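User: I'll paste a sequence; please echo it back and then give the predicted structure.

Assistant: Echoing your sequence first, then the prediction.
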Amino acid sequence: MKTNSHFPTPAVQPSLRRRALLLSLPLLAAGSRAWSQAPEPKLGTPGKDAGWIPTPAGMVEAMLAMARVSKSDLVVDLGSGDGRIPILAAKLFGARALGVELNADLVAYSDQAAAKEGVADRVKFVRGDIFETDFSSATVVTLFMPPAVLQRLRPKLLDMKPGTRILSYLFAMDDWEPDEWAFTDGMHGMLWIVPAKVGGAWQISTGGPNPESHTVRLEQRFQRITGHLLFGTAPLPLFDARLDGDRVRFTALAGQRRFDFSGSVAGNSMAGRLHVTGEPQREWRATRI
């Protein structure tokens, strides 16, 4: 499993407390009436976009760990069912969490489950349609939806803030390749990191005692980028080019000189560090043209 350096590193082994909580999660789907007045969820309960089938608790933890969820995150679960993903995000990782669910009985059940698990101060459930709910403030979005629904959601997900992490259990998003996978008990979950939008032409200026100016033309397909750096009038192909949220890197060769650009994207500007063979590192900036 690869690691993205700008995310905090998660604990690898769950504590005994985590194991106890995971063992108790089936009670969310078949809990005692003694603590829950809301109707108990029924497997396969039909919904507008998908029927209710819970994500296994072990996979929930594996996916949240893969996304490096922490107390600074807001996790939004679209189609939250019995509430287990928001509850685990708060209970195990200290995150704030929001569940969006159209079924009123499941919302009531989830509210009571959050109170029972002691996380009602950090977890909220709302009744709503996932296509009509504003979840743009999320830093992590979790999904267990069929491919047709994911395809409809994809444009909205790609318009979220670069660096937002998207998690899906079982189902992929067509030609948008996952950045990372998690496997447990023969099942899999996937992670995507929303990439910044960098396609087009950029004017680069470098610092240092001998400043230079170049134009770079980028073509983007999700987190994959290709393109050319214009070195004078010579178009130099880029290699090792990659987007990781708002982080960007690319390399070009001009004779014996290797140009390694790395930095961050903020709207119509980029900035970072440039390493050129045999020269001290220097800063670079770029603006979209």
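The helical segments are 16-24, 26-30, 57-66, 84-93, 104-116, 147-158. The chain has six helices and 16 strands.
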